[in-house]
Amino acid sequence: MAATIPASPATLQPCKKNVSRSMLIRSPPRPWRRRLPQHVVIAAASSSSRGPKAATGGRLETSTDAAAVAGEDGDVIRRLQNGPDVRGVALEGENGRAVDLTPLAVEVIAESFGEWLREELQQLESGRDGGEVRVSVGRDPRLSGARLGAALFAGLARAGCSVFDVGLATTPACFMSTKLPRFSYDASIMMTASHLPYTRNGLKFFMKRGGLTSGEVEGVCDRAARKYVARKMGLGGGRGMPPVVMRVDLMSAYAQHLRNIIKERVIVNAGNGCGGFFTWDVLEKLGADTTGSLHLEPDGKFPHHMPNPEDTTAMSLTRGAVLDHGADLGVVFDTDVDRSGVVDATGTAINGDRLIALMSAIVLDEHPGTTVVTDARTSDGLTRFIQARGGHHCLYRVGYRNVIDKGVQLNADGVETHLMMETTGHGALKENNFLDDGAYMVVKIIIEMVRMRLVGLEGSVGTLIMDLEEPAESKLMRMNILGEAKYAKQRGTQAVETFRNHIQEGKLNGWVLDDCGDCSVSQGCLVDTNDDPFDVDAYMYRQRRREAHCSPPCFHKLATVAAAAASIELAP
């Protein structure tokens, strides 16, 4: 009997019938050679066979059992894939779970990734043939990190990659190592299992374009599965020189990158009021560049302009400083900093309805579906802006205290209300104890600017309100009430009612009374239908001027008459 590769000596029992048969022989390993699969099949002819068939009757075959074992070994690697990541058990200690993320598994996955990466780069960069492929490796503080890290380095080096060890790092930092100018690696691997127990570990893969897709990781794992089977068989796993790994400090550079994002260029116009502290003690200590700020020193005569975010001079000067210095934001405070307005990087003034819309966009992103309370001088465009973002707009009486108190009351009644804001710039947030704090409002806006940069959104904060429909014309009229002060509110109420009657009687051509007034405040109207309404210091209605050229009739202008905020001059 002959065989292409002889097995260890064994006695073959002669067959009782003159036919060929197969016998399974288990061959013990030889210490002086690589171990081959222990299952071989020898096809033997009977002793009576003759001719060429007898001479070549023995042949080596891979058994079905051996193929099954190889498939199971390969599946060990494939099962480690978890979407776009690799995750597995790296340490003993989990009931019912054996360690499957072994150093060998990590090494073959890393080697396969390095090979895939080189092929991918050659396709992306048509002129690139060979050359250095640079990969950074970071890890979280898991106990298995150092041991698996060594295997990761070895696998990448076997694939011909230059390896850069960034040590303890965050996943975003690893990705940014492909972007930051000092590093600009071709790819990065973060060793982490995220929120999973300490016994687990895993791999996340990044290129300059972002994280690998699930399909790409599946391809890497398929390649790694074949390598894993070969290594388990003792093939192709010879150890060479230890990999050369360069240690680099990534986290310091990444932290600087984050600081640079926070270092917005902010112009502050304190109007010689109390707002200078926000420049010195807040922004500059955070690293912001406040070059070009205006009128920071307190001066009770307010020699440049009144500290007022509604003041056209204050906003115009701030706009000029923002444009001259290329700032990201301009801030205007009133004297005691309970109100504020801003100017975006394009020089657009954001106060009044615009400021309420900006704060509504920020708050509704944090608290979807919340109610926003404003005074009734705001426009229909603001209402549509809030509703388009899933919020509710409660119009209430003029006076910042009225607006804030209404928000407090709505929350007490179970109506979630996170923002209360008046067109003058008074704004209060539930998270800030319902306090109207102009500086806190600006902090929220700056945080939103930073968030926009972190997620890669282009443009200034003004882009958040690009779809705000603004009135074709807006004018604030303040009229004095003459006579004794104790009768001022009574006379103002009389003036409001007179104006209302004129409109209802059709004496003002083109004007109609707003339909707001017959439903509950929580639905966005002025009439307070609560069982226990609180005192208010404004008595008001909303009127619209209907434009004759619109079909169907549309309302372009809105007039709100309030005895407290828009006073009417009465004859004594």
From TrEMBL:
Family of this protein: Belongs to the phosphohexose mutase family.
UniProt subunit comment: Monomer.
Listed InterPro entries: A-D-PHexomutase_a/b/a-I, A-D-PHexomutase_a/b/a-I/II/III, A-D-PHexomutase_a/b/a-II, A-D-PHexomutase_a/b/a-III, Alpha-D-phosphohexomutase_SF, Phosphoglucosamine_mutase
EC number of this enzyme: 5.4.2.2
UniProt xrefs under CDD domains: PMM_PGM
Cofactor(s) required, per the database record: Mg(2+)
Reactions this protein catalyses: alpha-D-glucose 1-phosphate = alpha-D-glucose 6-phosphate; alpha-D-glucose 1,6-bisphosphate + L-seryl-[protein] = O-phospho-L-seryl-[protein] + alpha-D-glucose 6-phosphate; O-phospho-L-seryl-[protein] + alpha-D-glucose 1-phosphate = alpha-D-glucose 1,6-bisphosphate + L-seryl-[protein]
Domain Alpha-D-phosphohexomutase alpha/beta/alpha: 83-218, 254-347, 351-449
GO molecular function (one): phosphomannomutase activity
Domain of life: Eukaryota
Keyword set includes Phosphoprotein: yes
Gene Ontology process terms (BP): glucose metabolic process
Protein name: phosphoglucomutase (alpha-D-glucose-1,6-bisphosphate-dependent)
Cellular-component GO terms for this entry: chloroplast stroma
UniProt keyword list: Carbohydrate metabolism, Glucose metabolism, Phosphoprotein
